[in-house]
Design brief:
By secondary structure, this protein is of the alpha/beta class. It has eight helices and four strands, in the order βαααβαβααβαα. Strands 2-1-3-4 form a four-stranded parallel β-sheet. α2 packs antiparallel against α3. It starts with 9 loop residues before the first strand and ends in an 11-residue tail after the last helix.
Amino acid sequence: MHTELATPRLICLLGMHRSGTSYLAGALSDAGLFLGDRNQTGSPFNAKGNQENQRIVIFHETVLKAAGGSWDAPPDRIRWETRHRERAMQLAAAYPADRLCGFKDPRTLLHWHEWQTLPIHWQPVGIFRHPQACAASLQTRDGMPASKAIALWHTYNQHLLTAWQAHPFPLVDFDQPAIALQHDVQRVANWLGLSATSKIAFFEPALRHTTTRTDTRTDTAAERLHRQLQDAAESFWTLPEATTDSN
């Protein structure tokens, strides 16, 4: 059992690309989560910016490339060397210890087994989206073939479910109607100990460019995984972990 160092408690926002991670980061920032140096420059695919710390993004992608992969072609295995662990600790230590901090990069899911071995007080929060909606968004933004997009969705979200099964944490379903979505994020913010009086106003309908999905239940691996994530999201609030905030 490792001993945690004097680093800030970090909220790690986990989720697949094009699945609402930028919304989750921005909404929790509205509630008081400090995201530090983040990208808030809008783009056609992210009107309010992707909310990412570019130093962490570069670190993640550099390690992926060294392992022969990338964000859209994840390697079979990622192993951090000592220098990677040292760099990760530097990145974490850059956040101030006097407030609740967090960061978001979808690539974190590919590195999560390494991040969580560091002597840092982690608290993950996740978000997910229907595989067809995510795939349609990736096709629009990157021209990614549907089959590749669905396979990529499955890889990332299997990591998300595996992380949740090891130590349950709040999960948000990005496909919900706006009112329900904002209610769930406010509940997460309260559980994290963020200001309950802060108004979470980050969401706008335009943030969801693609809503394509199916209401027909099929038995594909992606559909089964999606239902497991939905069940996990609902069940978390009945678990002992949900009765006490994460402070």
